[in-house]
Amino acid sequence: MTTQKNDTGVVENADQNRFELALKDDDIAAAYYRIDENGNLVMTHTEVPFEYSGQGIGTRLATGTFDLIRASGRKAVLKCSFMGRFYASHRDYDDIVVG
């Protein structure tokens, strides 16, 4: 099930346990998660294809991911180093980050 919920272009693909941002052709940037025993989304890994480096794709993916988590009323646990760095400079997401 893929549902688009915000204007960043990020969608949640719950079947694949990831948030996706469509790029050119069939390329995507993705933020992967697992669900812990408390129902939190444990963000485990973020991938942006190398050829899109330095274009703000990771920031757009992280913003869209955090916005979708907030909109759904869920919480995030950040085990992914990229998401952790993003959050460190975007503390306006304090309400959704736990652990």
UniProtKB/TrEMBL annotation:
Transmembrane residue ranges:
none
> What SUPFAM superfamilies has UniProt attached to this entry?
Acyl-CoA N-acyltransferases (Nat) (SSF55729)
| One Pfam entry name | Acetyltransf_CG
Superkingdom of origin organism: Bacteria
Q: Where is the N-acetyltransferase domain?
A: 11-98
Q: What's the name of the protein?
A: N-acetyltransferase
Native organism: Paracoccus fistulariae
